[in-house]
């Protein structure tokens, strides 16, 4: 009540005094607040800073293994030995004996062309031989008579030389006639097309009544006992192949029936890529191929190709350092360090590393995006995905 009366008294009689008292009160309150803040700061300065948090990560130990790369390709069955057979003379095809699928034996007739012209040529050549033989007989007898007269001195050396020249000319004409006769006989034989080896007819190129030229394919014959699986392989497939002197074994199976399989060996790799597909043709020799693997059948080939030592890591271990692949490696002091690596290839859920890691390195496989250089970590069991 006294304070209230005093306040009322001040309000009524001395307003300047009231203002001075209010200012003094504010100063006292500010001083008290400053003391409280200073005390709190002193207390906080006496508390030690908290230790940095140790992050939990998953890691695996590096163990390089042989780069056993499984390669799969799709190809087809083709004959190892296949020949396009055609006539060595031109003419009208009068008969094609063999058809597609026909089994033929070596020397068997496959087709014939009209041989009348060639029979006439043979007859003409035979007549030329007979005429040359007659001239030869006459020249030989004349030379014998002149030789006898020259020995007795009844003729001149010039006459003998002329007769000797006629004899030698007759001999040359007879030889030429015999050669022409042999050629005409051969050409008559060429009017019939024969198989060069035992096989099966896989294609034909002409029908009876058609005129064929020299070398034109009339019948294509393939050896059914020797088959190849032919594949078109991209250039990248050869990049990591270290042993080219020992080609790998290839497991070949039918696409229509994967249970039908056989094992083959790479026997030929094309030295030049195909101009259109930029792939290389690889031929795999099949020994004792099943009968179901007919010519033209689609097959798949699987091969294990060995190479240099590589490290296989989960895809979650991969990190980026200045645009290059890298991984976090845990050191002896449990601090992590970012190491650049060389990736041989990327797969669906893993990466194959060819360089940058050593035997026994601990590579972080989970939590890589939360790490910083030289940061302490603690490894928990497991591989992180």
Please tell me about this protein's structure:
It is a single chain. The protein has four domains: 44 residues; 83 residues, conserved putative lor/sdh protein from methanococcus maripaludis s2 fold, CATH 2.40.420.20; 92 residues, Efflux pump adaptor protein, beta barrel domain (Elongation Factor Tu (Ef-tu), domain 3), CATH 2.40.30.170; 110 residues. The radius of gyration is 51 Å and the shape is elongated. Strands 1, 18, 19, 20, 23 and 24 form a six-stranded mixed β-sheet that branches. Strand 18 and strand 19 form a beta hairpin. The protein has 385 residues and is α+β, with helices and mostly antiparallel strands.
Topology as a string of helices (H) and strands (E): HHEEEEEEEHHEEEEEEEEEEEEEEEEE
Count the beta strands.
24
Which strand-content bin applies to the residues? 25-35%
Give the termini separation: 79 Å
User: Helix/strand-derived class?
Assistant: alpha+beta
Rounded to the nearest angstrom, the radius of gyration is 51 Å
Per DSSP, the total helix count is 4
Write down the overall mean pLDDT.
82
Biggest beta sheet summary: 6 strands, mixed
Low-confidence stretches: 1-18, 27-48
Helix content: 25-40%
Number of self-contained structural domains = 4
Coarse morphology: elongated
């Amino acid at each position: 009540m006294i304070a209230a009366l005093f306040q009322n008294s001040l309000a009524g009689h001395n307003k300047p005094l009231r203002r001075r008292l209010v200012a003094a009160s504010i100063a006292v309150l500010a001083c008290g607040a400053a003391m409280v803040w200073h005390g709190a700061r002193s207390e906080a300065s006496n508390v030690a800073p908290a230790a940095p948090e140790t992050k939990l990560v998953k890691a695996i130990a590096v163990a390089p293994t042989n780069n056993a790369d499984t390669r799969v390709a799709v190809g087809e069955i083709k004959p190892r030995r296949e020949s396009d057979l055609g006539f060595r003379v031109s003419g009208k095809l009068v008969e094609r004996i063999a058809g597609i699928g026909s089994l033929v034996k070596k020397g068997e007739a496959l087709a014939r062309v009209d041989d009348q012209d060639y029979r006439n040529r043979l007859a003409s050549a035979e007549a030329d031989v007979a005429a040359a033989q007659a001239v030869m007989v006459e020249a030989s007898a004349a030379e014998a008579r002149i030789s006898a007269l020259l020995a007795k001195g009844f003729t001149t050396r010039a006459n003998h030389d002329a007769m000797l020249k006629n004899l030698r000319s007759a001999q040359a004409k007879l030889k030429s006639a015999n050669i022409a006769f042999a050629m005409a006989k051969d050409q008559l034989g060429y009017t019939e097309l024969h198989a060069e080896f035992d096989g099966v007819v896989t294609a034909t190129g002409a029908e009876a009544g058609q005129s064929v030229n020299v070398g034109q394919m009339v019948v294509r014959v393939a050896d059914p006992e020797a088959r190849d699986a032919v594949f078109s392989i991209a250039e990248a497939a050869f990049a990591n192949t270290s042993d080219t002197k020992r080609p790998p074994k290839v497991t070949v199976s039918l696409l229509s029936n994967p249970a039908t399989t056989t094992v083959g060996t790479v026997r030929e790799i094309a030295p030049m890529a195909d101009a259109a597909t930029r792939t290389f043709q690889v031929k795999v020799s099949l020994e004792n191929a099943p009968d179901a693997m007919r010519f033209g059948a689609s097959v798949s080939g699987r091969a294990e190709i060995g190479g240099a030592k590589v490290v296989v890591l989960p895809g979650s271990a991969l990190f980026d350092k200045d645009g290059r692949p890298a991984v976090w490696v845990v050191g002896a002091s449990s601090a992590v360090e970012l190491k650049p690596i060389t990736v041989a290839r990327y797969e669906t859920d893993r990466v194959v590393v060819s360089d940058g890691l050593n035997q026994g390195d601990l590579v972080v496989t989970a939590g890589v995006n939360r790490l910083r250089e030289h940061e302490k970590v603690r490894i928990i069991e497991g591989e992180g995905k």
